[in-house]
Amino acid sequence: MIMEINASPDNINSVKYNVHEKQPYRTWYHFQPPQNWMNDPNGPMYYKGVYHFFYQHNPYAPTFGRHMVWGHSVSYDLINWIHLNHILEPSESYDINGCYSGSITTLPVEKPVIMYTGSDTNKHQIQNLAMPKNLSDPFLREWVKDPQNPIMIPPSGIDVEGFRDPTTAWQGGDGKWRVIIGAKTGDDGKALLYHSDDFVNWKLHPNPLYASDNTGMFECPDFFPVHISGSKSGVDTSIQNSSVKHVLKMSYQNKQLEYYFLGEYFPDQEKFIPDADWARTGLDLILDHGMFYASKSFFDNAKKRRILWGWSKECDTTQDDYEKGWAGLQSIPRQVWLDKSGKWLMQWPIEEVEKLRDKQVSITGEKLIGGSTIEVSGITASQVDVEVLFELPELENAEWLDESEVDSHLLCSEEYASRSGIIGPFGLLALASEDQTEHTAIFFRIYRAPNRYLCLMCSDQSRSSLRQDLDKTPYGTIFDIDPNVKTISLRSLVCLLLIINIILHILESYILCEFRPNLNPRES
């Protein structure tokens, strides 16, 4: 079965896509293009009442390709999207081998400008500009490449295929614009800093804003301020004063993980000094411990918040991707702010997701006895927003863990997850088959450590399918838990086009649980 998606000719250009109708594994409230490959988010933005989302896209196949374009979609609520024509396609000598990742910067008088990486005739990576053709069009359907392109080429000592992914630019008190370009020399990553008076002529600062050894390419860097007060409200990218800290985020190519540093930015010296040298102390701040990469944030001026997007790649085989006709999705957009402690970032799904809620199924005061599972009945929808509150027993009885000698991902694997402990594992089995031979376990486990308590949180895909040719990597992290806080909450968004089973699960100890799944109105 094939269905056609038509953009309304009343407000946008008519576009038709062929999409397989029977797609049980396609998500329904994550962002996805109608078909084929998608990876990095490219500079989301808000303009004249409309949210724009730009993304890396191969319009010809569900695999990464040589001639990548910038896909473009618009929305009024960040949930429901209208897909428009591509805005950047390979056409000139400076991008003939691909229009790759970049960002949007809004110049004075509300004038957005794209800075993007092009792969030229020699497959060297260079930076280019594009501007809207018609600023009165809130959908910004047409863009024009700058006649002065390219505006930056790889400087001496930088790999010609390792010079990409410009950030959103920011303006200093001196009126100059700054931007970071991800780069590498051999296996060493660099965040190169450029500045400009006019946004066209750029000069490289002698020293990178940050550099590290053996991380590979600094992909998709991001640099933005956050309130030190713990306020959830966002801050415009150009704000620089004593009320903010700055976040420097990099996607380490060698590790395929998102790392970030918190620190002080000194624009007069063009220096960023991290609060701690995490890379050398082992106290790495990871932005997301799951299938999440190449993230990009933007300041939502309409609601005064900073919103973060990230790419989730497929765990299927390439043959699976061809059969279903698509690959890749974006994570649920999340609001991001600095925790009151000033030590890490907080993230939460944007409030618009809650507008999808309809029917509610609740369980309150349920006792979870060791070794038991409780199936949550009454869920007939294929998408669910699950909130669970677990009331914990006394933590003094928790088993001992030496954090320095364990790998959280190994502790989350099936071998360890199935072992009973003193407090845990407890959590959810989502997308569970009737006999539970297939399920995805999201669970916690509590440990004691010197002078503190630790919580292991896991998402275990090892039994998510009976097939053996899929990526079923378990993901997890260990974090401190306050013994005075007697509860742990868990929110899980399930959004496949499948009828699902949600099962509360515990192997050992006694846990009190309150469960509230909210069903997606589209499928309830």
UniProtKB/TrEMBL annotation:
<protein>
    <recommendedName>
        <fullName>Glycosyl hydrolase family 32 N-terminal domain-containing protein</fullName>
    </recommendedName>
</protein>
<dbReference type="Pfam" id="PF00251">
    <property type="entry name" value="Glyco_hydro_32N"/>
</dbReference>
<dbReference type="Pfam" id="PF08244">
    <property type="entry name" value="Glyco_hydro_32C"/>
</dbReference>
<dbReference type="InterPro" id="IPR013148">
    <property type="entry name" value="Glyco_hydro_32_N"/>
</dbReference>
<dbReference type="InterPro" id="IPR023296">
    <property type="entry name" value="Glyco_hydro_beta-prop_sf"/>
</dbReference>
<feature type="domain" description="Glycosyl hydrolase family 32 N-terminal">
    <location>
        <begin position="30"/>
        <end position="349"/>
    </location>
</feature>
<dbReference type="GO" id="GO:0004553">
    <property type="term" value="F:hydrolase activity, hydrolyzing O-glycosyl compounds"/>
</dbReference>
<dbReference type="GO" id="GO:0005975">
    <property type="term" value="P:carbohydrate metabolic process"/>
</dbReference>
<dbReference type="InterPro" id="IPR050551">
    <property type="entry name" value="Fructan_Metab_Enzymes"/>
</dbReference>
<comment type="similarity">
    <text>Belongs to the glycosyl hydrolase 32 family.</text>
</comment>
<dbReference type="InterPro" id="IPR018053">
    <property type="entry name" value="Glyco_hydro_32_AS"/>
</dbReference>
<dbReference type="InterPro" id="IPR013189">
    <property type="entry name" value="Glyco_hydro_32_C"/>
</dbReference>
<feature type="domain" description="Glycosyl hydrolase family 32 C-terminal">
    <location>
        <begin position="352"/>
        <end position="488"/>
    </location>
</feature>
<dbReference type="InterPro" id="IPR013320">
    <property type="entry name" value="ConA-like_dom_sf"/>
</dbReference>
<keyword id="KW-0378">Hydrolase</keyword>
<keyword id="KW-0326">Glycosidase</keyword>
<dbReference type="InterPro" id="IPR001362">
    <property type="entry name" value="Glyco_hydro_32"/>
</dbReference>
